[in-house]
Design goal:
- The complex is a heterotetramer, with 2 copies of chain A (200 residues) and 2 copies of chain B (433 residues).
- Helix content of chain A is 34%, strand content 2%.
- Chain A contains 8 helices and 2 strands, in the order ααβαααααβα.
- Chain B is built from 10 helices and 22 strands.
- By secondary structure, chain B is α+β, with helices and mostly antiparallel strands.
- Chain B has a 5-stranded mixed beta sheet. In chain B, strands 6, 7, 10, 11 and 12 form a 5-stranded antiparallel beta sheet that branches.
- The chains are: A mainly alpha (200), B alpha+beta (433).
- Chains in contact: A-B, A-C, B-C, B-D, C-D.
- The interface between B and C is large, with 93 and 93 residues.
Chain lengths: 200, 433, 433, 200
């Protein structure tokens, strides 16, 4: 994970930090409790350090994929439903239909349109299943279930080799995703700077 | 002469009716009286018409609801439309991407009811009670804080016009109208608290470099934003065009990240976590490309403009004077100049900016033009405050060393020049076709 | 390993259902399939819930109508209200004077659905088909002309923010809220053709000195406007806040006479006659007074401001920080300065202008304030670009040599300073009471 | 009528006129026909020069006042209805109710709230009845009817003395209204000039 070079704004920050950490000026708002923070703190960074305890295998995931209704939208095998295909090698989600607007500009390599393959980090896959799926019951999957469904998608896409391989905090963090080097670093943002020098 | 002694002579009218009439404090009563009067003399004077019944008058008028909160004229039928690729709402009731009818807009403000809509996955428009809604800021801060909507409204506010534009807003040769080619952008006057105000109140810690902002809708749409941008001009907005933010724009509160692509402008904002790295959420995936230049172009919108009148699908009734009108915007700052060509890009003349060119906001431009009735092609290009000029598709293709085919796609946020072809009949067509 | 060989084992599921499911292009079909799947294994895993039926999903979502032309959140209930003196609509369906809820507005734009309404006599909101509507200019011109709406939209346009204010907009001690005291004014971004453009096209003749502008509604509301003003900045406006003018503001086209009292801003404009004298129409009667000074004050609005938060009828939950917010405007030009007093007018400090101070437009101001929990009185006063300062009621009474009673009425358009009294409980009351 | 001093902007106009009378720049819009102009040209100036041919007496007007439904709103005698009183001496339109908002600032002398009395010129009274009355049938009164109803209101308010006096173009223009001197001249309008010098 060290390759992520997370601190893009170090120079700017060093200069500005003192001003930002000032004393509260308004006294409006209250301090959230630890429980309140925990309940909402669902974002898992690429290094997976926020991944919760739990585990699951692709075998369990295959069953949960149907049980939780995922197959209803994505196709029973992860391909062929109206929702985006989750497994490579199949036809596009809807034959002959372009990617939805908004996803067109993503310049995806063929097959890396599959989220499990596009994602440079397995933690992100876990995060999205956890927060955004399944339709209409988002956020109801338990950690073990998310690990299992994650394992299922990784297995189906040949990222892991065995349907019995246990995915947990540790294995997910160590897993090297196929697209690990498939992304460019996000450019630094500076006020009053063109988005890309020498672009026409 | 005493006025009271000279009462109207009413020998040919029922005195009783009149008395009841003039004394009645019941409006229906006196109207009935009026009708009776009119009816009595109807035979005498040809032009007399019976007083219409109250019901008829009421039907002509305005309902209480229209007085309380008015609607547009029934003759105005301009509507948003789903992108061609997917219906909104779909069979599930999910809304995905909905184009705004830019050809029907005036000035710089996009009417809130017609503001374009996009969601993170296809989402329900959530039904959020603002009394229950909270915005929490935590992570690498000295003092995590949670704010009610009332809290947010007690804090210093700013009001600013900003556009939002979806990364999918790119013209294609298959499209007909400007609603289809450019309708995934809109502009509004937003009111809210600067995110920097909130972050300072929390005290950002050393080492922090990004924020993750997250919505309260079912998919909990999230995005990673550089802390430098967050501290610069991001806005936690609760007001839109003078009233509360509309549900489809994030009611009760959204994050504005001026000039960044639409997906970062987190709607239904409920949480901001200050972190020390790019979090690569699902929504950040748009930037996943091996080319750093393409990634840079996906982040912010370059200078962009489009002619909205005359535009595709419209028809000029004949030769003569027409005021060309359009919109220009840039993710890099304010628009400085808009040029218009009516000869397919051979020559360019300055248009006029007709609204204040705010930073990261739509600006309306106009251009005086007399159409000679011959086939021609009209284009606009803008320059922003950084001096960046809106590029042609040919320039962009050359930059990437790609052939300029009909299907050529500019990487990142497409800000290439749009052309409309006008034929000798006055019909207007997509210049990319 | 070949992916196709490693199909999911489905021995405990009905293979047939799944096949039908995955191949079905019927969305209801696959949802049913999903529900069936979930149902099958429901016994096995506790947390499983049946997939909700499509109808339930749809109910959660957004109707086609909301996608086409959106509405505000159901939790937003701010409404316009009739003035105390007369209901709108009345028993006839007539609309008279309806106050805008200024306390609920953000920024400088008044939401079109909540823009204040006033009519010339009490009038129906006419139902005008814009295809049938015409604007005619005649009288002392070389070339009388008649314009369709399409004609008007072909001509050079401008977009400008302007307020409109009714001459009846005066605070009284009997009123409670800012909607009641100041709600007969609103502000919008208008788009249209400068009246001077149209008049020049017609060629104004020598000796002309006034115009009479007239509406198409049933009472044909008319007003006399000096030709100098007509040629300066009057606007024949068809756009309001980005879309077509709303019916209650004069759809399809109205005259804007920036800074003049509301009655001159002729709605449903259908005719302008260029004449050589003040025409003293019914609506010009407001100026009928023997005092030239009072007549002068009835024509235009002076610099005026009011605090909208905190304001009458609201309650502060306790001591602490509150951002004071309000609106300032002037019929004489742009607002240059707004000052706020939190000690009943003893001391004044500069507020901040939070929106661009356009000429003859509302400007939003803000003021940082920490309430100590003690009873106090808050006031605002503004200064416009001519240096005219908003007067106190005492100053105006002194000018007219009248006693400053509770019932004192400023002559003409009342632009006196408004005060809000805050008691120790945080309740806010009319400072005139 | 000469006392009206109509030309308030002569000086400004003399300077600006040349620019205003320029040739058409756009060629948009068309010339209205004489009939089109005539149909809409309803405004009657204070000097009454646009008053159409026709005539009527208060006696006829009294009958028309009821026949046309005026009495239904204004009271059968011109007082006592829900609509504003048209004849002086009676109670206000609605007892105990203030003038409607928007009319409050008008600083009306008592009784001159009655339109027939407030109006400095009889032509304006004729104009308003013609364009704006009666409710829901506005603009349908024929000239003779407007003359008669005008005569009726003038008679009831003692501006004219006989209910048989004929009101027509000529008599209305010559009639001296009680409020003829009851108004101040409208101030000239100049850009960038305060509405009233020395007003606080």
């Amino acid at each position: 994970m060290a390759s992520l070079k997370p601190v893009l704004l170090t120079a700017i920050l060093a200069a500005a930090q003192i001003g930002w950490a000032q004393a509260p000026a308004y006294g409006v708002g209250r301090t959230p409790t630890a429980d309140e923070i925990k309940a909402w703190d669902i974002a898992i960074g690429p290094d997976g350090k926020e991944l919760p305890p739990g585990k699951g295998t692709a075998k369990e995931g295959a069953r949960l994929f149907l049980l939780k209704g995922c197959g209803g939208c994505h196709g029973a095998t992860g391909i062929g439903g109206r929702a985006p295909a989750l497994v490579k090698g199949g036809p596009p989600a809807v034959p002959g239909q372009a990617m939805p607007a908004g996803m067109e500009g993503m310049h995806m390599v063929p097959d890396t349109g599959i989220m499990a393959l596009r994602s440079p980090y397995a933690a992100t896959l876990w995060d999205y299943i956890s927060r955004g799926m399944p339709l209409n019951r988002e956020g109801t999957l338990k950690p073990d279930e998310v690990y299992a469904i994650t394992a299922f998608l990784l297995y189906k896409n040949e990222v892991i080799k065995s349907e019995d391989e246990v995915m947990d905090q540790d294995t997910l963090r160590k897993l090297v995703m196929p697209n690990r080097k498939g992304y460019a670093e996000i450019p630094d943002w500076k006020r009053n700077t063109p988005r890309l020098a020498n672009y026409p | 002469m005493d006025l009271k002694q000279r009462d109207l002579k009413q020998q040919d009218l029922k005195q009783q009716d009149l008395k009841q009439d003039s004394k009645s404090s019941n409006r229906r009563g006196f109207l009935k009286g009026g009708a009776a009067l009119a009816g009595l003399a109807a035979g005498a004077v040809q032009s007399a018409k019976a007083q219409p019944p109250v019901a008829e008058l009421r039907a002509k008028g305005t309902s209480k609801e229209q007085v309380a909160y008015g609607d547009r004229s029934k003759y105005e039928t301009s509507v948003r439309k789903s992108v061609a690729e997917r219906a909104s709402p779909d069979a599930f009731g999910l809304v995905f991407h909905v184009n705004a009818p830019l050809q029907d807009f005036y000035g710089s403000i996009s009417p809130s009811s017609l503001h374009y809509v996009a969601t993170h996955r296809g989402a329900f428009v959530p039904d959020i009670d603002p009394k229950e809604h909270r915005v929490m800021i935590h992570g690498m801060v000295d003092r995590p804080l949670i704010f009610t909507m009332d809290d947010l409204k007690r804090l210093p506010f700013v009001t600013r016009q900003h556009f939002v534009e979806c990364a999918g807003n790119r013209a294609k040769s298959t499209q007909t109208t400007v609603q289809e080619t450019h309708g995934l952008t809109s502009n509004a006057e937003y009111t809210g608290v600067l995110l920097s105000t909130l972050l300072k109140e929390c005290g950002v810690q050393k080492g922090a470099s990004w924020i993750v902002a997250e919505g309260a809708e079912e998919v909990k749409g999230a995005g990673s934003i550089p802390l430098g941008k967050a501290m610069d001009d991001c806005l936690v907005a609760y007001g839109q065009n003078g009233e509360a933010l509309r549900p489809q724009q994030g009611y009760p509160v959204r994050l504005m990240v001026p000039g960044f692509e639409g997906i970062f402008q987190i709607k239904y904002l409920r949480r901001i976590k200050v972190v020390d790295q790019f979090y690569m959420t699902y929504n950040d995936y748009g930037h996943i490309t091996t080319d750093a230049r393409a990634a840079a172009l996906a982040n912010q919108v370059g200078p962009k403009s489009v002619i909205t009148f005359p535009s595709g699908g419209q028809k000029l009734p004949g030769p003569g004077y027409y005021e060309i009108s359009g919109l220009a915007w840039s993710g890099q700052g304010a628009i400085k100049k808009v040029e218009v060509s009516t000869d397919g890009g051979k020559t360019w003349k300055d248009g006029e900016l007709r609204t204040t060119p705010y930073r990261m906001a739509h600006t309306r431009f106009g251009f005086h033009w007399k159409w000679d009735g011959k086939a021609c092609e009209i284009l606009s290009r803008c320059t922003d405050e950084l001096g960046t000029v809106q590029p042609s598709r040919a320039q962009v293709a050359k930059y990437w060393n790609e052939p300029l085919t009909k299907g050529f796609r500019a990487k990142g946020m497409d800000n290439t020049i749009m052309a409309w072809r006008i034929d000798a009949e006055g019909s207007i067509h997509n210049g990319l076709a």
